[in-house]
Automatic annotation (TrEMBL):
It comes from Algoriphagus machipongonensis. InterPro entries: Extradiol_RC_dioxygenase (IPR052537), Glyas_Bleomycin-R_OHBP_Dase (IPR029068), Glyas_Fos-R_dOase_dom (IPR004360), VOC_core (IPR037523). Residues 7-132, 153-271 form the VOC domain. Pfam families: Glyoxalase (PF00903). This is Glyoxylase family protein. PROSITE patterns: VOC.
Length: 316
């Protein structure tokens, strides 16, 4: 039987200044801005999608930027570090690049046999780059980053939890994940155990609760193929005591949401239909795209949004 879940679909964070947010993820990290739309639940706030050339599932980091938002704090009950995948022998390039833009970088860490560095974005969002030689995705660059060093998409994510057992039962019992291994207080899970599907649970029984605001993750979405498999996931979860939402139309995918036992908001999103349904692939992210129901309010919505521009040439 084909698995219903096949890894990470997207990760969504809360951010501060919209222009600084675009500058960091397109200019410094070199991800493509594949969609510029609104938060469907708060139409006066942008929703940016950053990813590879087409915003393929497993590459999409998204943000809700709130101008003036105070910074959140890392703690338990949160996804505290988003890890991106980079090719082997790229780590020194990235260390030098991040230092060039004044971004403090950790020492090189060794985790499950991979070299890892940690740093934070302008809002304090935790990011890791993981060197590996098993990721054949193409990545993306605006030209300021050599293609051979570019980010390929997600490697994985770290959930900081007070205990792991209930979340482990959810992942391995109903979401097609399996246990991979343990290093200290870190427990690793994967669907196939490759870049794009890794979930680490970092157990911190005495940790303080994180505070969600700018620089923290709002939710993590897992991939499912289509609406049929999404309904199967929803049915399986609800039959086993997880309270999911109804299916929500997010234009570029459909979603269900539920809170995992450790407190992190989970989403299951469809791979279909993708980001090219309302823009030509060559011009993704150039215009503010609105769902059909918001088009009558376009003038009011656009006036409420701070204008932003791509300035990737300033980050060569």
């Amino acid at each position: 039987m084909k698995p219903l879940i096949s890894g990470i679909h997207h990760i969504t964070a809360i951010a501060g200044n919209p222009q600084a947010n675009i500058d960091f993820y397109t200019g410094i990290l070199g991800l493509r801005l594949v969609k510029k739309t609104i938060n469907f639940d708060a139409p006066d706030v942008y929703h940016f999608y950053f990813g590879d050339e087409l915003g393929s599932p497993g590459t999409i980091f998204t943000t809700f930027p709130f101008t003036g938002a105070r910074k959140g704090s890392k703690g338990t009950g949160e996804l505290t570090y988003t890890a991106f995948s980079i090719p082997t022998n790229s780590l020194n390039f990235w260390i030098e690049r991040l230092k060039k833009f004044g971004i403090p970088v950790s020492d090189v860490l060794d985790r499950f046999g991979n070299k890892v560095i940690r740093f934070e974005d302008h809002d304090g969002m935790g990011i890791e780059l993981v060197e590996n030689d098993t990721d054949d995705r193409k990545g993306w660059t605006y030209g300021q980053i050599p293609k051979e060093n570019s980010i390929r998409g997600f490697f994985g994510a770290t959930l900081n939890l007070r205990e792991k057992d209930a979340t482990e039962r959810l992942l391995t019992g109903f979401m097609d994940y399996h246990f991979i291994g343990q290093e200290g207080d870190r427990f690793r899970y994967g669907t196939e155990g490759k870049a794009g599907d890794i979930i680490d649970i970092l157990v911190n029984p005495n940790g303080h609760r994180g505070m969600q605001s700018a620089g923290s993750v709002h939710h993590i979405a897992f991939r499912t193929a289509n609406s049929d498999s999404q309904l199967e996931v929803q049915k399986l979860l609800m039959e086993n005591g997880y309270q999911t939402t109804e299916v929500k139309d997010r234009n570029y995918f459909t979603s269900i949401y539920f809170r995992e036992p450790g407190g992190v908001l989970f989403e299951v999103a469809t791979d279909e239909p993708g980001f090219a349904i309302d823009e030509d692939e060559a011009h993704l992210g150039e215009l503010i795209k609105l769902p059909e129901w918001a088009e009558p309010s376009r003038e009011k919505i656009e006036k409420s949004l701070t204008p932003v521009t791509l300035k990737t040439e300033e980050y060569a």
